[in-house]
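Lecture 7 notes: from sequence to structure.

We start with a single chain of 147 residues. Read the sequence below before looking at the structure.
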Amino acid sequence: MFARLNGFDRSLTDNFMHLESEMERLFEAAGLRGLHHTAKHSVQPQMHIGSTPEQVDIYLPVAGIDPKAVNISLERNQMTISGQRDVEKSDSAKLVKKERFDGEFRYQINLPDDVDQEKVEASYEQGVLHVKIARREAAKPRQITIQ
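Now the structure, written as tokens:
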């Protein structure tokens, strides 16, 4: 699904993922793996933002959250996306590894000046929230014919 992001350099994220796994290996070697994992993954879901001349696309994985419980607001050129996921926890089980986020999350995204605040769409498919913000027609590049 994220492959639809135009202009999004996958090699950059691959490099970050490799760096993350190397850091994780170092934490594990120092006996700090549990601390690093719990702190890193409990904050909020990971977001992807893509931009084309026609629109800005925001993808946010929110599986397990009722889409009606996610709040999206736009004021000037700042979009706020917030919500909460409550994960059931067993009191008798010891947490060995935590990779699912839980609790509240809040993103504040500064959008480009040329977005059209009247043309915003949000959809939810297979656990992924997709927000599309169109760019204003006047801001889109256009081809000029020589006469």
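The helical segments are 10-29, 33-41. Keep this in mind for problem set 3.
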